[in-house]
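Q: Sequence in, structure out?
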Amino acid sequence: MNTEKRVMELLWNLFNKMIWLNQNSLKKELRDYKPSEIHCLDYIGNHSEPNVTQLADAFYMTRGAISKLTKKLMGKGLIDSYQKTGNRKEIYFRLTKKGEEIFKIHEKLHHGFDERDRVVFEQMSKEEMETVLYFAETYNKHLNNEFLKLGVDIKSAGIDKL
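A: Exactly. Output:
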């Protein structure tokens, strides 16, 4: 097997294992919530005065889809909406006490994932980390260019841009 194929195979296996391990823990602790709900709570918990437009941009979703998602979260008592004085057009969101609890569970789980995997990063030199970063950035740019050649709007397609 050539080196390029081996690299891609290892990366594919790496990401699949991370997803499986992380999802297993997430499903145990947050089984009553969908990933989109958890990610929305995470965004709201980590940003001041998040609004529909910011959420739509962050998740590459339409404003209508975000409205559905936030209504669902409000129905579950996880977030509240509010408007600023003098701006009746824009709707903002904040976590409720229950939403804050779910947010903290999610943060704790991700902290655990980071701690679990820290041993790998501690074994790598700064130069090795720079090489990995260079590879990931270069490959992402290459793939973004391939999307552009196909006329695919990366943002609309929900694909992270770099």
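The helical segments are 3-29, 35-46, 52-59, 63-75, 97-122, 126-149.
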